[in-house]
Amino acid sequence: xxxxxxxxxxxxxxxxxxxxxxxxxxxxxxxxxxxxxxxxxxxxxxxxxxxxxxxxxxxxxxxxxxxxxxxxxxxxxxxxxxxxxxxxxxxxxxxxxxxxxxxxxxxxxxxxxxxxxxxxxxxxxxxxxxxxxxxxxxxxxxxxxxxxxxxxxxxxxxxxxxxxxxxxxxxxxxxxxxxxxxxxxxxxxxxxxxxxxxxxxxxxxxxxxxxxxxxxxxxxxxxxxxxxxxxxxxxxxxxxxxxxxxxxxxxxxxxxxxxxxxxxxxxxxxxxxxxxxxxxxxxxxxxxxxxxxxxxxxxxxxxxxxxxxxxxxxxxxxxxxxxxxxxxxxxxxxxxxxxxxxxxxxxxxxxxxxxxxxxxxxxxxxxxxxxxxxxxxxxxxxxxxxxxxxxxxxxxxxxxxxxxxxxxxxxxxxxxxxxxxxxxxxxxxxxxxxxxxxxxxxxxxxxxxxxxxxxxxxxxxxxxxxxxxxxxxxxxxxxxxxxxxxxxxxxxxxxxxxxxxxxxxxxxxxxxxxxxxx
Amino acid sequence: xxxxxxxxxxxxxxxxxxxxxxxxxxxxxxxxxxxxxxxxxxxxxxxxxxxxxxxxxxxxxxxxxxxxxxxxxxxxxxxxxxxxxxxxxxxxxxxxxxxxxxxxxxxxxxxxxxxxxxxxxxxxxxxxxxxxxxxxxxxxxxxxxxxxxxxxxxxxxxxxxxxxxxxxxxxxxxxxxxxxxxxxxxxxxxxxxxxxxxxxxxxxxxxxxxxxxxxxxxxxxxxxxxxxxxxxxxxxxxxxxxxxxxxxxxxxxxxxxxxxxxxxxxxxxxxxxxxxxxxxxxxxxxxxxxxxxxxxxxxxxxxxxxxxxxxxxxxxxxxxxxxxxxxxxxxxxxxxxxxxxxxxxxxxxxxxxxxxxxxxxxxxxxxxxxxxxxxxxxxxxxxxxxxxxxxxxxxxxxxxxxxxxxxxxxxxxxxxxxxxxxxxxxxxxxxxxxxxxxxxxxxxxxxxxxxxxxxxxxxxxxxxxxxxxxxxxxxxxxxxxxxxxxxxxxxxxxxxxxxxxxxxxxxxxxxxxxxxxx
Lengths: 518, 518
Known about the structure:
five-stranded mixed beta sheet; alpha/beta; homodimer; disordered N terminus; 17 helices; nine-stranded mixed beta sheet
């Protein structure tokens, strides 16, 4: 499904920097500018000026500092140019998908009132960063993009909206930076708010996860789906009191990381469930399947008597019908162990995980856990509305940092380098005392929209200038010397072939543009 | 110098969303997708689903909330889709310029260690947001992008780098939101670090300001230039003790907002300067001009005896020579009243202001103050380096929020609407019981990379669906009904002309792409 960008496919220098598509009138499917495994890129050396590529490590110390510790805060990191280029391409692919589905972008402040975040995250509330009270409001850093979205909807009395939001969120979590877990990280959220016919927006969210993970070619994946109503019904028929639903949920949620026996003992030990109830739950939450499983549970003597279960299973059946029409059920699993930690979910929940591949060509495979997750939260907006009016919502969040960790690892393994600048022409000179001529020429190029650099020296050596082109992957050098000034020409050098041609000054822009055409 | 994007020029619907240029091989000068004054856009109605455009106000209350205040923190604001579209276009123009000058992008955390920010901002340090000590490091929100850049260079031992960074910064300032001043706001920084021949990178920074302000067509502007060494020399020859240089600087800096008499009385009253010294300073700081003024000051009996003054004036002369070669001295003024508040400047400083225009077509002109500023800071990196090694730097920051306020005001005045989604096709149906057909069709379109939407209803009315196209500016409707299913065709409707044609199913993608071609 992925089409390689023309440059990547041809194995030429990668264009760099943040690039979100042009108004794409013909609407080709996302053209990513990198391929996987990477094409044979022309490596860019790192000897030259400005080309040093830094591998930043999370919160890494750079050695003392005069009194001040020279580091970023724990669990955070700097992103050097090669990171930013890769990350921006990743984000561009995600944004392209969100736009393909008709979403509009919003942005909200990194700071929220503390009370906005209070009571939304259950046990995780302790991970919220709080600001000092400096004689004003009590503030905190946003923990996700979902609660701010709900606040935004309620504050502006919006009852229907399809929006995406890509921004950093903050969690005082125990960072596991090697697994792509940071305290400051990007979330990429797509949400549909509004009262609609059941499961149509929910199915679209799953389609979006499927599209993005397919586009990024991350290998095989699985999207687990469940419903909070089904989980609650299971707890109810197993005799768990309603007051223990949420805490039981968060224990069940650990089934993907620990075996059933451990989960069971946490239920009985820490959460105070009876061994019988725990065993009973175990019979259900270890089930997973597709439409067949849904049908079977609809016939289950206990669940079929439970109103919540019937609603949840009925909707799940509808969802699977829609997913069949989308042709994506092959990667979807109805999994009763999926619980998701957050308090605010009320219906369908889902989570995508990458599957370890047998023939994985990466030397040290990264374990990354879930790479996308989401669900329905019909009550959250109502928590903000003065009159408690509900706006049903369903949404998905793409775990871009974890995906980035995988891609970064692969780039590293490939040994290739990413070009971090886009300079097209170096303005150079072979003799001394020609700074004025260079400044005049480069100014003309900039004014014509050509990406140009020159060395910041009065009298640089020609060899150094040409070396800089090679190091930085600059394709052309525009050389102005005494002879060229006399003749009214510029010597245009193709850095790769080393060919040089004199171009009349008045034809220079035209010739440069012609040569830079793809 | 500005070329209108083809869509804007033709007065058609504006493409929306964040769009940073493609790898621009032919290197045309920035094509902004909006023009000034705005072309006669086709307005997009706001009656339809999802199309409500919200005017967010800074920290505005949305009315109570169930216990919780429904607002954003003081001095911050939400950005609804129309904002984000406009802002992203603005940022795209700035990024295009930074890339044209060969810069690479970096990103640093919003959080920094408090000690990283300590001692860098002089009197303004009280405006730094501090986080609660939650049993770990003492953290603060970044106040600008310059100090984190210096920290980054020192930490990674980088001695040469040309980078840009576009990100939010935080200042507990008294917000003047009508003038585009917020507590959370974007900065767009371009900096050149490294030991180079004098004034070449400095001149490039001024060229960049000139290019961006010209590209954005904000009206006439002026870039004021001065040098901290010249200012210090002026203070010295006027008999001010060195301990009072910085505080005198910040008083002089107010000359653009208050008359000399008031500045003088602050110097004598608050800052404790003698009336004679203040008058003496007044003779200098009210001067402004070009090369002629530089020559005159080089002959000044007192300044010509001062080492700092000779250095500063000599460099200023060189700078003006380079700016002459760039052809931009027409908008540059050597202005001895320019001081800039920040502690860390050591050489050239500059600030761009928009000039009020006589024939301004805006009804309520916004007073925005400076829209760009910067200067040389040769000592900052050394403050972080364990051995105090210096990395000379010069940089510029574009005040994007203020520029945005102006553009926003103009869009408002024009009464035009910005399209906030890019949907190309609405998948519709004229009869009931055809949800499955719609889901199948829209899935095909998404998989082919076409931006498509459908209403989230099982059986929507055709009129509602077509109305949605009109409201949202969606150019095409792909209609699947019973007859179309039988005939193996899709009815393709041109929303603007209302023409409908049956297209064989297998030719649909081709036909849609053909029609969407520019």
